[in-house]
Design a protein that fits this description.
Elongation Factor Tu (Ef-tu), domain 3; Transl_B-barrel_sf; GTP-binding; Elongation factor G, mitochondrial; 38 strands; single chain; binds guanosine-5'-triphosphate; 5 domains; seven-stranded mixed beta sheet; EFG_III/V; binds 2-acetamido-2-deoxy-beta-D-glucopyranose; Rossmann fold; alpha+beta; Alpha-Beta Plaits
């Protein structure tokens, strides 16, 4: 009954607008923008689903990975996600718990899609970090934690799956402290574990919560079970001690051996959580409907509102000076587009308003390009449904219709002149895998092949497309095999284009290992206007610190005097920089090179920009072979979990794939192996591990760094490159 549904949505929207109109600006204090991030399979989707159910946003719970493909969990809106059972695309959902408005940004779990996580984290004020009570802190939890630290995202932890065999929340807490180095303490003590898991005891309020009704919607309060009293007391002292380490008021209580009132304790937990010096730990079982409502109270009580956070923008009108943003509805608008999505309603642009308000019908401007557009519609999204709203205030997350833009664009009020704010650029990793593709239908009469590629590139900065100049092939690159596979699948489903793909290729790099000098003269002085330029200096590898700072190429001018006129020095730099694009051993880009210019000479008539650029290129060619060039390959951090009986086989497989085992742990017959393996060797690994372990093993991986390739491995590449060069 689509008609009825629409009326419902319209009615909801009307109510929403009304309450908002009454509450006005004070709303920011009651707003929480949160993400839920987790290791794959720790239950993030299940938890999100429960949150939406208990907050009244959905009427029924559909289990993730259910049998009926049309009835997957609400947050996984793409059909493909349902089939793969993993969350790929983030969507923003708006809901309410008690008086608090909550925006949930669904962040993807798979490491191939970390840029999505990064983007989501950029617009969040806080997060729930979900951990499995059996798996604990896994490699991906560490990655996600590192990202949260980079963006200073305060968080609460939720230890899920207390109903599972081997559930051990105490051990997970130790891992949070040791592996993630977080100052964390339990907010709760479990009532029973595994099949006896029944509820939780709240340490601050000293009450037991149990969950009843078909979906755990009925929360009953009771006294602390007698056998748990000591444990609760122990955890309560520990909570005070941990808070005392970061909060003076609590330190005093701890030293006086006094317990503060629950309100004072809660206020301290909130202060420390927002200051990112403390992480409160909640627990339960999303699947068995235990512990989710108290977690929501925790979100309300302890995670920051937009008013608690200090953000800043770069003022493009003032040499990109960093200036503070005010979470004030009347201040000039600053909003960040953080996600584009092709929906069945057309292009949706997700934005976070940092300052001022977005109003339907107003004119907004892309602060970088100065392009002015009218804002036809503003909506709140709930997975695939939406509510129209007239205005969204500071701190809020909304979606816009009919706005052409790229993710990462900053919008401001078009009617305010000389105000050009830019939100910081987002961290985007370089793609590590490439794949040559072409449409099966060579004519591609619909033009959809090109359209799809353009769309994906705009949505996802880690997905790149280029056409190889020599082979005329279309090359797509991304963060892993699965990343690219997902796009080919989306092309087939959403754009009806079947593609033929080659073998995935690794994105190699080259670098130099020692210092080498150059002294090169570019000269063409026979007839007509001549060309003359001489450059002298040396190239050397960048230092470890420079690489740590993210530098790939450094140019230093150490000339004494003006042997090369200043206007040509930039041409010299450009010439060297261009040489970096294609290495000499296998033709892949160079990185980690420093060029130092010490001398040169020019001719009063025959010197020009081109002459110096060519001199630099010649000098580079001259020096690079002397500088010990090597091939670098991407190396991945891999974490594998397999039942004990397969450990030997799997370790053998990793050794064959040139992997280095860093660590292996054994717990309850389950081995966790941490290793580093060249990406090239990881192709097809999912098939191997499946067949080697009767589908009982699983692994995750993420890019670590480009590292030197062993000579004998590089030789094959070098030979192929030389053959290709000779052919052309
Ligand atoms: N026993 C138990 N199983 C759970 C619990 N929560 C989730 N699961 C199961 O764990 C599996 C993974 O859950 P999801 O919610 O899809 O996990 P996710 O973290 O969203 O995973 P991705 O979408 O792949 O990132 C599903 O089979 C769930 O039914 C829990 O509290 N207890
Ligand atoms: C807005 O500015 C950014 C940065 O220059 C640019 O990449 C983007 O395409 C612009 N968007 C529009 C709609 O002009
Ligand atoms: C591609 O080839 C054309 C002509 O063959 C050349 O003009 C152009 O600069 C090349 N582009 C790149 C990126 O190499
Ligand atoms: C560099 O080359 C020039 C011209 O070929 C020569 O005069 C000069 O001595 C050389 N410099 C060094 C340090 O070898």
């Amino acid at each position: 009954m689509p008609g009825q549904r629409q009326t419902e949505v319209a009615a909801l929207a009307a109510i929403g607008m009304q309450t908002r109109g009454l509450a006005g600006e004070a709303n920011s204090e009651l707003l929480r923008n949160i993400g839920i991030s987790a290791h794959i399979d720790s239950g993030k989707t299940t938890l999100t689903e429960r949150i939406l159910f208990y907050t009244g946003r959905i009427n029924a719970i559909n289990e993730v990975k259910g049998k009926d493909p049309n009835k997957g969990a609400k947050m996984d809106s793409m059909e493909l996600e349902r089939e793969k059972g993993i969350t790929i695309q983030s969507a923003a959902t708006y809901t309410q718990w008690k008086d608090t408005n909550i925006n949930i940004i669904d962040t993807p779990g798979h490491v191939d899609f970390t840029v999505e996580v990064e983007r989501a984290l950029r617009v969040l004020d806080g997060a729930i970090m979900v951990l499995c009570s059996v798996g604990g802190v896994q490699s991906q939890s560490i990655t996600v934690d590192r990202q949260m630290k980079r963006y200073n995202v305060p968080r609460v932890a939720f230890i899920n799956k207390l109903d599972r065999m081997g559930a051990n929340p105490d051990k997970v807490l130790d891992a949070i402290r040791e592996k993630l180095r977080l100052n964390a303490a339990m907010m709760q003590v479990p009532i029973g574990l595994e099949e006896n898991h029944d509820g939780i005891v709240d340490i601050v309020d000293q009450v037991a919560y149990t969950f009843h009704g078909p979906n755990g919607e009925e929360v009953r309060k009771g006294p602390i079970p007698e056998d748990l009293a000591d444990k609760v007391e122990m955890r309560r002292m520990e909570l005070l001690e941990r808070l005392g380490e970061v909060d003076e008021e609590m330190e005093e209580f701890f030293l006086m051996e006094e317990m503060p009132e629950p309100d004072a304790l809660r206020a301290a937990i909130r202060r420390a959580t927002i200051a990112n010096t403390f992480v409160p730990v909640f627990m339960g079982s999303a699947f068995k409907n235990r512990g989710v409502q108290p977690l929501l109270d925790g979100v309300e009580n302890f995670l920051p509102s937009p008013l608690d956070m200090k953000y800043s923008y770069l003022d493009l009108a003032d040499e990109e000076a960093s200036k503070p943003l005010a979470c004030d509805a009347k201040a000039p608008l600053v909003a960040l587009a953080f996600k584009l999505e092709e929906s069945r309603f057309g292009q949706l642009t997700y934005v976070r308003v940092y300052q001022g308000s977005l109003k339907r019908g107003m004119f907004i401007r892309n602060s970088t390009t100065g392009k002015r557009v009218k804002l036809p519609r503003v909506v709140r999204m709930h997975s695939e449904e939406m509510e129209d709203v007239d205005e969204v205030g500071p701190g809020e997350i909304a979606a816009l219709f009919g706005i052409e833009c790229s993710s990462g664009d900053t919008f401001c009020d078009a009617d305010i002149k000389d105000f050009n704010p830019s939100m910081l650029t987002m961290f985007v990793p370089e793609p590590v895998v490439s794949l040559a593709i072409k449409p099966k239908d060579r004519s591609d009469s619909s033009g959809n092949f090109g359209k799809a590629l353009q769309r994906f590139q705009r949505e996802d900065p880690t997905f790149r497309v280029k056409v190889d100049n020599e082979s005329k092939e279309t090359i797509i690159s991304g963060m892993g095999e699965l990343h690219l596979e997902v796009y080919l699948e989306r092309m087939r489903r959403e754009y009806k284009v079947d593609t033929i793909a080659g073998m995935p290729q690794v994105n190699y790099r080259e670098t130099i290992t020692q210092r080498a000098e150059f002294n090169y003269t570019h000269k063409k002085q026979s007839g007509g206007s001549g060309q003359f330029g001489r450059v002298e200096g040396y190239i050397e590898p960048l230092s470890e610190e420079e690489i740590q700072e993210g530098k790939e190429f450094v140019f230093l001018n150490q000339m004494i005097g003006n042997a090369i006129p200043p206007e040509y020095v930039s041409s010299v730099e450009k010439g060297f920089q261009e040489s970096m694009e294609k290495g000499v051993i296998v033709g892949h880009p160079l990185q980690g090179v420093k060029v130092v210019l010490v001398d040169g000479s020019a001719h009063s008539v025959d010197s020009n920009e081109m002459a110096f650029k060519l001199a630099a290129r010649g000098a580079f060619r001259q020096a690079v072979n002397e500088a010990g060039p090597v091939v670098l390959e991407p190396v991945m951090k891999v974490e594998i979990q397999v039942p004990e009986e397969y450990q030997g086989t799997v370790v053998g497989g990793i050794n064959r794939r040139r992997g280095t085992i860093l660590e292996s742990d054994m717990e309850d017959d389950l081995a966790t192996i941490q290793c580093e393996v060249p990406l090239k060797e990881m192709f097809g690994y999912s098939t191997e591990i499946r067949s080697a372990t009767q589908a009982k093993g699983e692994f995750t991986m993420e890019f670590k760094a480009h590292e030197a390739m062993p000579q004998h491995e590089a030789e094959e590449l070098i030979r192929k490159y030389k053959e290709a060069e000779n052919d052309s």
